[in-house]
């Protein structure tokens, strides 16, 4: 078959990779010179630890696919680094203890470690904490370089063509007409618009059960030493479904987040990039219209928490940014797939799980559409 895929972010690229892997041809359109949305404005985390029980199977499958992809495409920067969620209070410790007792603890690679064992795995963590919830299944990729590396890999097959700076304007049957006046014919059209829910997407499928979520993040200069795992703080328990239960209810009841963290619905996540700098975040904002500027208070909070856990000053912050991603609001759906016409589908809404689940979602769509 010949597929025309619209949207060059992680979902569009993952669907192209799944199709190429099954022997099909792909024409891929991206309206920017390079994807600029949530695909590159994230941590690059392949995050198994926090996913719900119903999502665990597809998450572990995606983790396996990322490892396979990393073996074939070193440029994606895959590394099975794991994560360490550091707890600082007794209530947070109770949530971590419940996690290691859960039925899925072994599948997630959960282990609760005292500070000495935490530092044996990640010596850069010299700060104050009671324990660390280690998840050996978590991993990372380099979000800013993964997609170009995957496109080069697909181009080498001779069955993939990428059109940058190309916006789809209309679809007639399965022929896509772009803003350069070109026609792209295919047997199947997949539209992966990211957080662009209006305009072309709305013309195709109307209103979708999705919302947009805004976040703020920052990047430091090189740390000067390895941070061998991703790092999270105990506030992250509040935002991931894997940790729901009586212990989390008690944490939320007994320990309010600091004002800034609560106001911006914050957690600390920290990942070291291959160049040595740290990507640190994040916040969550759900009510549109979103601000066009970034607030300084969340960055001050993140800096203070990171420095407390590291036991040292952070390197200079070299850039800050905001991003917006698309999240399905259908409680039973990981992603929204809407059929616009015969052999034309719109796929969006993975939320903050796009980088984690991209390869498995591409594979799942390929199965659903019998590719």
UniProtKB/TrEMBL annotation:
<comment type="similarity">
    <text>Belongs to the DadA oxidoreductase family.</text>
</comment>
<dbReference type="GO" id="GO:0016491">
    <property type="term" value="F:oxidoreductase activity"/>
</dbReference>
<keyword id="KW-0560">Oxidoreductase</keyword>
<dbReference type="InterPro" id="IPR006076">
    <property type="entry name" value="FAD-dep_OxRdtase"/>
</dbReference>
<protein>
    <submittedName>
        <fullName>TIGR03364 family FAD-dependent oxidoreductase</fullName>
    </submittedName>
</protein>
<keyword id="KW-0285">Flavoprotein</keyword>
<dbReference type="InterPro" id="IPR036188">
    <property type="entry name" value="FAD/NAD-bd_sf"/>
</dbReference>
<dbReference type="GO" id="GO:0005737">
    <property type="term" value="C:cytoplasm"/>
</dbReference>
<feature type="domain" description="FAD dependent oxidoreductase">
    <location>
        <begin position="3"/>
        <end position="368"/>
    </location>
</feature>
<dbReference type="Pfam" id="PF01266">
    <property type="entry name" value="DAO"/>
</dbReference>
<dbReference type="InterPro" id="IPR017741">
    <property type="entry name" value="FAD-dependent_OxRdtase_HpnW"/>
</dbReference>
